[in-house]
Specification:
Layout: E1 2-6, E2 9-13, H1 16-22, H2 29-58, H3 83-91
Antiparallel strand pairs: 1-2
Length: about 100
């Protein structure tokens, strides 16, 4: 939550995430669904981060997403052209 001053008055800016995480929204179906989606998204991001760590360890030879033609000595095969890393970047899990 942030405080904002406008025209000599103070206003509180609060996000939807703050509302659903800090309040009981069980009797509000729409907000309950938003909370469920936020929770599910957090679990999926955690899984994606864990999967990315495992993919880094096993390398391109065992990654079903990599294009073997892109793997050579000069490039980092797990990042350059790897479909897995492209998906992880879209999810915001990696910032490579």
């Amino acid at each position: 939550m942030r405080m904002k001053a406008k025209d000599g008055k103070f206003y509180a800016e609060i996000t939807l995430r703050d509302v659903v995480e800090k309040n009981d929204v069980s009797d509000m179906p729409l907000l309950s669904e938003v909370k469920r989606l936020y929770d599910e998204n957090a679990k999926l991001r955690e899984f994606a981060e864990m999967f990315a760590k495992v993919a880094d360890e096993v390398g391109c030879d065992h990654c079903p997403y990599c294009d073997p033609d892109l793997c050579d000595e000069e490039t980092d095969p797990m990042k350059d052209g790897c479909k897995l890393y492209e998906e992880l970047r879209e999810l915001g899990v990696t910032d490579d």
